[in-house]
Amino acid sequence: MKWLPPNETESRALIVGVQFPLISMPRSSPSPKRSAWIVMAMFAMIAVPAGITLHTVKTAAVAQISNTNPTPYGYTWSLLLFIIPIVVIGWWFLPSEGIEIPQRAFWRTIWVLVPLGAGLDFFFAHHFFFFPNVGATLGIGGPALGGSVPIEEYIFYFTGFIAILLIYIWLDEYWLSAYNVPDYKGESEQIRRLLQFHPSSLFAGIALLAAAILYKKFHSPGGFPGYFAVLVLGGLVPSASFFPTARRFINWPAFSLTVFMILLISMFWEATLAVPYGWWGYQQEADDGIIYRGVGELAHRSGAGLDCRYLRNDDRL
């Protein structure tokens, strides 16, 4: 195969002496609206087959763990999955390229997101989660309604949001900078108002919640998918209020790569380590039924095999 130089309209390939026209190369990036749909489609390519596969699980595998403390301080050490990217990006990648983080905007974002994540544990942990493997943590209890949670939970949200934001900034400002907004200040001056209603987010949230409730009712043990409902409300309420304004400023390739990096970390962290070894698990009544079928039941059974009490009831806390 011999590639010929592209002209102004199309690229062609010469194969065995015959020219074949190829698809024209795009001349510009897709619109913000189309980019958002592309990212959602990319995420669905992973989420949909994963959900279907989890649905095929009829009986969860049981981890045969004889040691009552198989992963000493495992949850604590695993936080390095967030801490190391923070150190590498914040103290090496960004400074070496002369990229300055807008401190005010950065920390405002963190101080909005971290309380939301911490609030999930403080108000709902005893409804949604359980923590059977005390030995995987420092044994220090963090405050929560209905009992303590591991202090690692609050460190998880604090370091997690910082890591996610730094990954996106690094991709946006350097690795995928060709796709960011070239005139950010000029674009921001065109904003008429910050709050703009986005009905598609509202309809998507209602559809997702209705689907979870129906699935829970017909395919899973009783209860209400409260954890899923909180995640939907926490993600789509801000989207319904700010998305029309924010989407023009999002570097969608950087955003999509950030999502896939976090998805990779989550799948490794939760499915490989956290659930099988009882670092945390999901309450059956509050799960949507899909996750519980695949990994939640495994968490309950593995936790029982570890012969550990729930952390919230541990005498040390």
Stretches where pLDDT is under 50 for at least 5 consecutive residues are 1-16, 22-26, 292-317
Structural class: mainly alpha
Count the strands? 7
What is the percentage of strand-forming residues? 5-15%
Query: Looking at the structure, what is the overall shape?
Result: globular
Share of helix, binned? 55-70%
Q: What's the order of the H and E elements?
A: EEEHHHHEEEHHHHHEH
User: How many DSSP H or I helices?
Assistant: 10
What is the C-alpha radius of gyration, as a whole number of Å?
23 Å
How would you state the average pLDDT, rounded?
Answer: 80
Can you tag this structure with a few keywords?
3-stranded antiparallel beta sheet, disordered C terminus, 317 residues, 58% helix, mainly alpha, 10 helices, globular
